Amino acid sequence: MDTDYDDVKDVNYDGPGWRATYGGFWKETVDTVLSRTATAVGSYGSLQIFYYRCANCRGWFPRKRDVPSASKYITIDHISSVRNHYKSVGQYMDFDARNQWYNKTGNLRAMCNRCNSSKGG
Length: 121
Hints:
Elements: E1 8-9, E2 21-22, E3 25-26, H1 27-35, E4 39-44, E5 47-53, E6 60-62, E7 74-78, H2 82-88, H3 95-102, E8 108-112, H4 113-119
Antiparallel strand pairs: 1-2, 2-3, 4-5, 5-6, 7-8
């Protein structure tokens, strides 16, 4: 799933577990996954930005929000696919339980958009 997690999505849920989401990921989830990823500092024009290492191809990529014109950028990838989880048990879970699983940081890694898209499902 190629997720541009920098766009805040509106969620029509106002219960105790509500959080603003970034492409479905909670902000703290994105921050946690990226904080444990190898980083390098670079520049884009006069801005100093972080580059993150892809878990698959090992290349260095910026966040899309930092370099909007980049054709390759870092995304968040589910190691165990969302599709397989939904088919096996996710469809029987309530919204909060699915959201907890979706944002489980132990099942997430940083991956460039091309590697992430090539995985499928």
